[in-house]
Amino acid sequence: MSKFQAPKGVSEYFPDRSRYFEFVRETLIDSARRSGYQLIELPVFEDTELFTRGVGESTDVVSKEMYTFEDRGGRSITLRPEGTAGVMRSVIEHNLDRGQLPVKVWYSGQFFRAERPQLGRYRQFYQVGIEAIGLQDPEIDAEVIAVADSAFKKLGLKNYRLEITSLGDSQTREKYTKDLRSYISTLDLDEATLARASINALRLFDDKREEVRALMAGAPVLMDYLTSESSAHFDRVKECLKEFEIDFQINNRMVRGLDYYTGTAFEFVHQGLGAQSGIGGGGRYDGLMSQLGGADLSGIGFGLGVDRILLACEAEGIQLPPNLALQLFLVPMGELAKLPAVKLAQELRVAGLSVDVAYGNRALKGAMKAADKSGALFALVLGENEIASGLAELKNMRTGDSTSVTLRTLQEDLLKLF
RNA sequence: GUGGUCGUAGCUCAGCUGGUAGAGCAUCCGGUUGUGGUCCGGAAUGUCGCGGGUUCGAGCCCCGUCGAUCACCCCA
Questions:
Q1: With bands split at pLDDT 50, 70 and 90, how would you rate the model's confidence at A1?
Q2: Distances (CA, A) of A185 to A58, A59, A188, A255, A393
Q3: Three-class secondary structure of residue A168 per DSSP
Q4: Counting Cβ atoms within 10 Å, is residue A145 exposed (0-12), middle (13-18) or buried (19+)?
């Protein structure tokens, strides 16, 4: 065993599981592309203040989970704990919002939070996210939710549910929070719980203890405080989701970890992931952009946890589509065939085919086994006989049939097949 | 960050009240002068996470440490 180990709490993906990871990530991204979102590629570290101002000082993410360090120029730098603040920064910095609205972008990559690791909760985790900026229409809220939902359906996930709510505008929230706090102050709660409530009163709704849940049953409900505009917006979102045939559940006690959410908020929860059940979440943010020094534009987006979605797929026993990456596996027989084989492989690759070669001096049986393992669709043995005659057997690895081909026309023949 | 459980071959795990390691799968070779997936035979593989302690003797007991995992917390 090596003396080096991966740092605590990171997930790594290597063959063969990396193929599964890739499949999940690409499916998510594909769904975003299909709805007109374009890639925005951003740094994994930012000025610390971007997160303290954007995400909110009172959140756990900012107050105790950030990887913050000083760079050589004495700047305070933080590894991104979430994606939206960075996107806003870039949009403002490069005036992307000066053109046609909305700005629709997707991103993917690693995020960092210094938490105690658990299955599905990592210090470095992978997210795919989208943001649609500069549009108030409730239809775009539904679109964002639908991008995530259709990706999950494409993956074949079944045991998940979508929860939605509306958090209202900032004034509504203020008034509601005040009432909620005064309600909580009438309850008989221990000190730790009260401390939790003082940071974010909504969190008590999430408490795992039955007693606390029972006490909170009588608490005021945010939904009752919504202005008529907020209600109408939310109704329209729900209407759209129904039209899209996306099932959802209203959760008027949803707790979001980031301060900037207003209006529509949603969460995808998977059954069977233990305590870390959230596979994605997002919502609308009205004040974020102006707070970061940009125009007063609203936006909506989500972040999906690729690590957790992968776990969810595995939990549901979802099979990976067969590996179609390799089209041909070449098996040279004997020393004399080696150079012609690698030359042929290289020519075919340049022509656009995907080809691997059985290297090493393995017995034919071993080489064929390697061909099988590679997942290649075809195998071709190239020995002295083939080189002399210019004829070879092209074996279909799926069916086991082989057809006679001339080496001279192999390239065309293969290109015709794919 | 707090508490519990766990850490043995590449993987999944067995290993009795302490007597110096085993299975299945995977790998490699062969049964079939040059054709994989099944079957059969054979081979190779371990600082028993790491460091210390107790003991004649530690995979097993004790302490520390690293990691995973579960719950809390939090969330993707």
A1: very low
A2: 20, 21, 8, 19, 82
A3: coil
A4: buried
- Whether the CB-CB separation of A382 and A332 falls below 8 Å is answered with yes
Tens digit of pLDDT for each residue in A319-363?
887 767 899 999 999 888 999 999 999 999 999 999 999 988 888
Residue A90 dihedral angles phi and psi, to the nearest 5°: -70, -40
A74-86: burial string, b at 16+ Cβ within 10 Å, e else: eeeebbbbbbbbb
Enumerate the nucleotides of strand B whose atoms come under 7 Å of any protein CB.
Answer: 1-3, 27-30, 34-37, 46-47, 49-50, 66-76
Distance measured from the CA of protein residue A8 to the C1' of nucleotide B49, in angstroms:
14
A251 touches strand B (CB under 7 A): no
CA A12/CA A403 separation, integer angstroms: 42
**CATH assignment, A328-417:** 3.40.50.800
pLDDT tens digit sequence for A35-83: 999 999 999 999 999 999 999 888 899 988 999 999 999 999 999 999 9
Q: A45: part of which helix (H) or strand (E)?
A: strand A45-47
A138 three-class SS? helix
The tokens describing A162, both together, are 């979508």
CA of A32 to C1' of B7 (A): 41
Concatenating the DSSP letter of every residue in A179-196 gives HHHHHHHTS---HHHHHH
Nearest to A329 by CA among A347, A289, A302, A356: A356
Q: In whole angstroms, what is the distance from residue A70 CA to residue A62 CA?
A: 16
Q: Are A286 and A133 in contact (CB under 8 A)?
A: no
Taking the stretch 264-323 of protein chain A, residues with Cβ within 7 Å of any atom in nucleic acid chain B are 267-268, 274-281, 303-305, 307-308
Q: How many Å from the CA of A238 to C1' of B75?
A: 25
Please report, for chain A, the start and end positions of each structural domain, with discontinuous segments joined by +: 17-168+226-315, 328-417
Same fold, A17-168+226-315 and A328-417: no
The nt closest to A119 (CA vs C1′) is: B69
What pLDDT digit, counting tens, does each position of A362-373 carry?
889 999 999 999
- The residue whose two tokens read 């998510």 is A28
- The CATH class for the domain spanning A17-168+226-315 reads alpha beta
Å from the A198 CA to the B8 C1': 48
Query: Straight-line distance from CA A307 to C1' B57, in Å?
Result: 47
